[in-house]
Amino acid sequence: MKSEEDLPLSHGVEAPALNWLTGFVAVDKAVSESADRHLKSSLGISSAQAKVIICLAGRQFMTQVQLARRLNYDMGSLSRLIPRLIDAGIVMRSRHPDDCRCWCVQLTGSGVAMVAKITAFLGATDQKLISLLTEDEADIFMVLLKRLLVNSATRGAADVSAVASTVSPRSFGAIGAPA
After folding, report:
1. Would you say domain 33-118 falls under CATH 1.10.10.10?
2. Three-class SS of residue 106?
3. Domain map of the chain by residue range?
């Protein structure tokens, strides 16, 4: 029997838009799993914890709500993650100076020292992945990523009916790019 991870997203033919999206998610998952293995073995933290550390870098503090929104984490996940970072001596939590209802999170000295190590790891990972592309491909890739980010932030929800009426499934290749 196949595991749940091996099952297709739908029982029919996947929509063309899912081709590129599932590919993007697969790359993100592979990179995150690789980063998790390395970060756990070398620094004793997960990639989710590394994201918190990097997000707090250079800031006096952030509230847990601000941190969750910035990282797109749900509050439950963040609430389970923060105590592990506190136990490891990487962050500390205190009440907000102006609003005692809020908890603030900030890096400790050891957390600040960890930022350089995480940044170096991320830079090496970036170089390793980009080295598989030519210089022109890397430039195009970055332009396309920026375009996707801008488009997703400015356009709001997609109008599915408009896309369905103008796009033929045969106009998309294996990864969802126009042929």
Report:
1. yes
2. strand
3. 33-118
